[in-house]
Amino acid sequence: MKSHLKFVETIKGALVRYCADLVQIPTVNPPGERYGEACEYLAEMVRTMGCQAELVPVPEARAEELYPHGAKHPRVAVVGKYLNSAGERGGLHLNGHIDVVPPGKGWKRDPFSPHEEEGKLYGLGTSDMKGGIACILGVLQTLSALDVRLKGDLTFSFTPDEETGGHAGAGYLATSGFIRAEYAIIPEPSQPHQVKIGHRG
């Protein structure tokens, strides 16, 4: 475990870069912009980390049924698996949402041009939740770099539409059978000092 934590220390700069790269893709919801671009970036990244990944589009009719902007702004997610994991039914799933709320007023800088100041990264989505997605990438990168073999399946997804209910995001993946894990970890930062062990919906 100490070697794992030591490795994470060495990639802190990369984790900040992953988050900053994602912030620069304005996946604003509503209406649901540039989801495909964010998903392509994430799929490309995880494939360099010992993972397989595929883009999963929500069928247009289903997206339109779930959300009024579904036709003009296609819904797409990333679903993948850490390849050095196998065997036990169920396993663990990591999930993060790629969408952010509209910027609103009061920004002193461009909310989609992330900048570091006094050890903190600022930009729309750094906390909720592109920082959480960067953490998932860090887990995958660490496992791959240290050639860690897991007995159970480790799967992950990056999904749209959490800010408007998640029905065309994680909800669609779960009801369509893309996610079958027994347990899940979602690094949602709404209460960063509290770990919640259950979630409705």
What does this entry show, briefly?
By secondary structure, the chain is α/β, with parallel strands linked by helices. The protein has helices spanning 2-10, 12-23, 35-47, 60-66, 126-145, 170-175, and strands at 51-57, 76-82, 85-97, 115-117, 120-122, 150-159, 183-185. The strands form two sheets. It has a five-stranded mixed sheet, covered by helices on one side.
Task: Describe, in plain words, how this protein is organized in 3D.
The chain is α/β, with parallel strands linked by helices and 201 residues long. 33% of the residues lie in helices and 23% in strands. The protein has six helices and seven strands, in the order αααβαββββαβαβ. Strands 1-2-6-3-7 form a five-stranded mixed beta sheet, with helices on one face. Strands 4-5 form a two-stranded antiparallel ribbon. A hairpin with a 2-residue loop joins strand 4 and strand 5. Helix 2 crosses helix 5. The mean pLDDT is 91.
Percent helix: 25-40%
Helix count equals 6
Low-confidence stretches: none
* Strand order, largest beta sheet: 1-2-6-3-7
Question: What quaternary form is this?
Answer: single chain
Q: DSSP strand (E) fraction? A: 15-25%
Query: Tally of extended strands?
Result: 7
**Radius of gyration of CA atoms, rounded to a whole number:** 17 Å
Note the overall shape. Answer: globular
Overall residue-averaged pLDDT value: 91
Tell me the span between the first and last alpha carbons: 34 Å
Class computed from helices, strands and strand pairing: alpha/beta
Succession of helices and strands: HHHEHEEEEHEHE
Query: Major β-sheet, in short?
Result: 5 strands, mixed
